[in-house]
Amino acid sequence: MLFFTAITTLALLLNPSAAAPAPEPAAVIQASEPVNATSGISVRATEPVAVVFTSWSSSRQCSGSSAGYTNADGTCYSLPGQSLRVDRITNTCRTFVYGNRDCTGTEMQVYPGNCYDARDFYTLKTFCH
Fold first, then answer.
1. Is 122 left (phi over 0), alpha (psi -120 to 50) or beta?
2. Domain membership flag for residue 7
3. What digits encode the pLDDT tens for the residues 35-50?
């Protein structure tokens, strides 16, 4: 057994690429709570225009009179209507809507080009890296 261990160690020293690859993490942990604005901790947006979306206040089908919005990442924003369509998300970003008014609760990721019924969602937050 000692001979096998010595041979294996020597082989790995001579050819480090022969080692088994590191295992993938079981899960990626997302931030679950927004930074409290009164805590003294400041968060700098990495993308000033992280998401562009359109909101409809009187329709669940993304039709009729609308308003457009442009938001930076890292901040929790109120959703102003009953439906929304994400027009654009910056490449390194992901956008979520939340069931509570502080970007907590039920979470759903949203994607460009889709119309979403936002009656059960009150806030939106984008994460970029």
1. alpha
2. no
3. 334 444 445 668 889 9
The answer to whether position 44 is within a domain reads no
* Terminal alpha carbon distance of the chain: 47
| Domain assignment present for 37 | no
Domain CATH number, residue 64: 2.60.20.30
Q: In this model, does residue 23 exceed pLDDT 60?
A: no
Residue 65 lies in domain: 51-128
Place of tokens 């924003």: 77
pLDDT in tens, 84-93: 999 999 999 9
Characterize 72-106 residue by residue with b for buried, 16 or more Cβ atoms within 10 angstroms of its Cβ, and e for exposed. bbbbbbebebbbbbbeebbeebbbbbbeeeebeee
